[in-house]
Amino acid sequence: MSELACNIVSYRPDQQMLDANFNLWQVETLLDQAASLIDRCLDDFKDYSSLDCAWNRFQVDLDSQGKQLELDKNRAGEGLSDQGL
Asked: How far is CA 83 from CA 7, 20, 37, 77, in A?
């Protein structure tokens, strides 16, 4: 293990130092930023879900049109063979 990794693994913060350096006013700013990020994520998720739904509808329509085309080709082929008899 590298020296840096050992330092990271063995790091134990001093609770008194953390308590002394902790500022309550920073929490509100961080929570506001977190709320903003969550709102952006929700908006992006809604957009993604809408695109995913549209893509799935497109795929279903494409598949059904492909199947309909195959049926039409088969019917046309049967019609030609019936006319040849």
From this structure: 86, 95, 68, 10
Residue 61: per-residue pLDDT: 98
How far, CA to CA in Å, does 53 sit from each of 28, 42, 43, 47, 65?
Answer: 37, 16, 15, 10, 18
**The overall pTM is greater than 0.85:** no
For residue 32, give the 3-state DSSP assignment: helix
Alpha helix stretches (DSSP H) within 15-23: 15-21
pLDDT tens per residue across span 41-53 = 999 999 999 999 9
Token pair 């008899």: residue: 85
Sign of the alpha-carbon dihedral angle for 31, 35, 41, 44: negative
Question: Quick check: 33 pLDDT over 90?
Answer: yes
